[in-house]
Amino acid sequence: MKKIIKIVLGVIVGLVVLLSAAAGIFIYKVKNGFPVSYETEAPQITFPTGQPAILLFSKTTGFRHGASIDASKPVIADLAKKNNWYLYETEEGGVFNAEQLAKFSVVVFNNSTGEVINDEQKRVLEQYVENGGSLMGIHGAGDDSHHWDWYEKHLLGAKFSHHPLDPQFQMADILLDAAPKDSLFSTLAPKWSNSDEWYVFFENPRKKGFNIVYTINGESINPSGNMLFVSTKNFGMGKDHPVAWYKQTGKGKTFYTSMGHNETAWQNTNFVKLIETALQWSSKKQPQ
């Protein structure tokens, strides 16, 4: 009998060790991605004249929101056709060179996670925005796997903490902020509902000078992200919980929305309208 108990205990301990190792690997990948190679060869692109060009960049090295990425591509392609935009879609980082990047009106980090471009390419993107380009981020582009101070400061305005796990997806009312600074955003639906994975940030980007487009009532959801041995992720952002925001960065623009975890977002006409409006605002030239 003692032998059986020892065997059972050994199996339990082994399972605990395996589960802990698997959890550790998963958490590491989410926070850091796995080591990757960086593409540096410039692609062949023929830019048409008379059309604002959009770079849709969906590369991931951390957690991959595959369903959302796959669902987004035909939707954004339709928006490009509707608005007479030229759309270039890639997961290769070689396009982040000064000559080609300058030809795009907007760069979209489409659920890009992890460190997806190298340090030199990051500097090129920073200069592109500060000299008049636009950078947009969708959902996973705002997690803490990027390890990039400029990006966190100018695109996000806040450091990612966690997302709810109890449950992971929760229905909430999405509320248009009282006075979006740009009139384009004031045409959006004043209130709509959707289920998403609501990111929790340590700071409120409103306090960092960002213009808020949409919020949820953070007190209407369970924000707890505690799991396994994590017991400190049980807080939220309070009632004022922004989920889409933008600002001027140098001569350029940045826009981010924490919505868009899975494919259902791209089936919601109000979310698609938000993305279309953000692209319109981002591609609009600033008055000199």
What features would you describe in this structure?
The chain is 31% helix and 21% strand. The protein has helices at residues 2-32, 66-83, 98-101, 119-130, 149-156, 269-283; strands at 53-57, 86-90, 106-110, 134-138, 160-162, 170-176, 191-196, 200-201, 211-217, 240-249, 252-257. Strands 2-1-3-4-11-10-9-6-7 form a 9-stranded mixed sheet, sandwiched between helices. A two-stranded antiparallel sheet has the order 5-8. Strand 10 and strand 11 (252-257) form a beta hairpin. The longest helix has 31 residues, at 2-32. The relative contact order is 0.15.
How much of the sequence lies in strands comes to 15-25%
N-to-C span: 84 Å
Low-pLDDT stretches are 13-28
Would you tell me the overall average pLDDT? 90
Structural class: alpha/beta
Q: Biggest sheet: strands, sense, closure?
A: 9 strands, mixed
Helix content: 25-40%
Q: Radius of gyration, Cα only, in angstroms?
A: 21 Å
Strand order of the largest sheet: 2-1-3-4-11-10-9-6-7
In DSSP terms, counting alpha (H) and pi (I) runs of 4 or more, how many helices? 6
The 3D shape can be described as globular
Describe the secondary structure blueprint for this structure.
Layout: H1 2-32, E1 53-57, H2 66-83, E2 86-90, H3 98-101, E3 106-110, H4 119-130, E4 134-138, H5 149-156, E5 160-162, E6 170-176, E7 191-196, E8 200-201, E9 211-217, E10 240-249, E11 252-257, H6 269-283
Helix pairs in contact: 2-6
Descriptive tags:
globular; alpha/beta; two-stranded antiparallel ribbon; nine-stranded mixed beta sheet; 6 helices; 288 residues
